[in-house]
Amino acid sequence: MFKQLLSRKDASKHAFAVVTGAGSGIGQAFALQIAKRGGEVVCADINLLTAQQTADIINASGGKAFAVQCDVTDLAQVENLAEQAEKLLSAPIDLVINNAGVGAGGKRIGEMSMDDWKWVMNVNLWGVIHGCHVFAPKLRALGRGGMINVASTASFSAAPLMGAYNATKAAVLAITETLAAEFSGTSVAITALCPTIVKTNIFEAGRIDDAAKKLASKLAPFTGVSAESVAITTLDALDRRQLYVLPQFDAKMIWRTKRLMPRLYTRGAGLINRLPSLNKAS
Fold this sequence. Notes:
Blueprint: E1 16-20, H1 25-36, E2 40-45, H2 48-60, E3 64-69, H3 75-88, E4 95-98, E5 104-105, H4 114-142, E6 145-150, H5 154-157, H6 163-182, E7 188-193, H7 202-205, E8 207-208, H8 210-223, H9 227-239, E9 244-245, H10 249-260, H11 262-273, H12 276-281
Helix pairs in contact: 1-2, 1-9, 3-4, 4-6, 10-11
């Protein structure tokens, strides 16, 4: 990893990474994959136990990883994460993955509670803002490396019953695109990950209505992919300095359809809003 990004004489030098939400799902997959490629990883998670479990897996296999508890909604904790990572890693941080996020859905705008809106915004949006605010200057000063922000196909699909989640992921995509422009011409690569359904525990752990969970579980066998495959695809894309990563066929189709036929796309997406099972749930 990072053979194309690092400006050192030793082009095989591996990443020294910080991954948020590393206790499970995509975050854990990123941490494990970075370690497999020879990198060192600080595994950050609001749940220190799960972060430590990820670090233990890496260390048991001969890698080098550390667990740090971090609530990404708290800027002070993200700043502390950076300080701890700088002490723990053998070299300056050159890869940051802002992954921590939560799921929410199943209610129309006006029906979702303000508490749920604030919860989703604090984790999915402010968590990424804090990560970018703290780590982007460090990458800029280092002059090399990369950052991956985990957005979602929701960042551009605007599916009904997912207003809060869509809004946060759209903002994450916009922030990532802005960073890419700001780092253009440097040796820092910026990548936005925009998957559809990934086989993680986000549906079980999120604030999602039962009907929406059932719909997701039905779609998962057809569109869902493993977190490991997403991590591999995205890290490879970062090495190629690729801005957008759409790891599934349906993500690519949604991207193209909305841009080529926006009116037809919106009508099609509206059909979801009229599904009897979801109407019953709401």
